[in-house]
Amino acid sequence: MPIDQTPQVRSGDLLHLTRAASPQFARPITVRVIRALTDRHTYHGWLWIDAYQLGPNGDAVARRELYLMPSGARWLTSPPTAPSRPTVPRGPVAKSTPAAATRPAAPPRPAALPSPAAQPRPAAQPRPAARRPVRRGPMRVG
User: Fold this and answer.
1) What secondary structure letter does DSSP report for 79?
2) Which of 1, 19, 23, 69 registers the highest number of CB atoms within 10 A of its CB?
3) For residues 51 and 63, what is the distance between their CA atoms, to the nearest angstrom?
4) Long-range contacts of 47-54, Cβ-Cβ distance < 8 Å, separation of 24 or more
5) Using CA atoms, how far apart are residues 76 and 130, in angstroms rounded to an integer?
6) Residue 99: Cβ within 10 Å count
């Protein structure tokens, strides 16, 4: 590929984006391209794309418009797969005991508080007299 030609991003491409593609990808993400947004003017070697961000299991988790340098993107052949959990060999299952036998006794409950409705209300305070608006006459200029 000539030096001045950037790779073409097409619909359906699976890209792994890191800081090499753009500083915004401090945490690398994997996307599936919906389309390249060629109607937007950009700097030479940069591109806007409309894409689905893929989660660890390969499913789309968000739709995003991204600004990137295609020469820094890494093309993938298959979506990421979630790492499987290693199987742990287990011994025979122990006979279960009733929960009440193994659980410690609960601490005693405190006495119930009186309800707010049962408490007397303080006497109402009289409201201060409302202030009357200031009446102003016609303004004199001169």
Assistant:
1) -
2) 69
3) 6
4) 47/6, 47/9, 49/9, 51/15, 53/29, 54/14, 54/29, 54/30, 54/79, 54/80
5) 74
6) 7
Phi, psi of 133 (to 5 degrees): -65, 150
Residue whose structure tokens are 């660890």: 56
Pairing of strands 74-76, 60-68: unpaired
Backbone region of residue 61 per phi and psi (left: phi > 0; alpha: psi in -120 to 50; beta: other values): alpha
Q: Tell me the two tokens of residue 35.
A: 């389309």
What span, in angstroms and rounded, lies between the C-alpha atoms of 36 and 70? 11
Q: Sheet of 47-54: strands edge to edge?
A: 60-68, 47-54, 29-36, 14-17, 74-76
DSSP state of 39: T
Confidence of residue 94 (pLDDT cuts 50, 70, 90): low
Tokens standing for residue 123: 């006497």
C-beta separation of 33 from 51 below 8 A: yes
pLDDT at site 1: 47
Condensed to tens digits (0 to 9), the pLDDT of residues 44-75 reads 999 999 999 999 888 999 999 999 999 999 99
